[in-house]
Amino acid sequence: MIGRAFSRHNGKLFRLAAAAFFSTQAPVHAAEPIKDTNPQQEIVAAFVADWPPQYAMDDSGTPIGFARDTMDAIARIAGVKVRYRIVDSFAKAFDDVREGRVDVIPNVGVTPERQRFGHFTAPIE
């Protein structure tokens, strides 16, 4: 999910990178970074602390799992850095995106309610 406030300013770039990531048949590491991006741009991603295998924390408190792997791959293509904001629930993550404290929530299902306050890429199957 991409927050509406973020997408008004930066979402086109991020959606382009996400579309490139999800449409490629090549390995993620082979994808070319998007040109003309600000390598210092940072996005903030909500990260639910305990919802494996999508979201989990390692012993040192670092986010791990499929959501982190996916987010990092898209950010690499988009040429941006990701800072993870650890939250204890999806309810908190949704509040954070609505209030603009986070820009994205990786790997969240599309529902009509969520579409009222966020944009979505194509689902990963």
Provide an overview of this structure.
- The chain has 125 residues and is α+β, with helices and mostly antiparallel strands.
- Helices cover 36% and strands 18% of the residues.
- It contains five helices and six strands.
- The chain has a two-stranded antiparallel ribbon. It has a two-stranded parallel sheet with strand order 2-5.
- The two termini are 16 Å apart.
- About 10% of the residues have low confidence.
Question: What's this entry about, in short?
Answer:
The chain is an alpha+beta fold and 125 residues long. It has five helices and six strands; from the N terminus they run E-H-H-E-E-E-H-E-H-H-E. Strand 3 and strand 4 form a beta hairpin.
| Cα-based radius of gyration, to the nearest Å | 14 Å
Order of helices and strands: EHHEEEHEHHE
What is the average per-residue confidence, as pLDDT, rounded to a whole number?
A: 79
Total helices: the number is 5
Helix-strand makeup class: alpha+beta
Strand order of the largest sheet: 1-6
Element layout with pairings:
Blueprint: E1 2-3, H1 4-9, H2 11-23, E2 42-48, E3 56-57, E4 63-64, H3 66-78, E5 81-87, H4 90-98, H5 112-115, E6 118-119
Helix pairs in contact: 2-3
Top keywords for this entry?
single chain, 125 residues, alpha+beta, two-stranded antiparallel ribbon, two-stranded parallel sheet, 6 strands, 36% helix, 18% strand
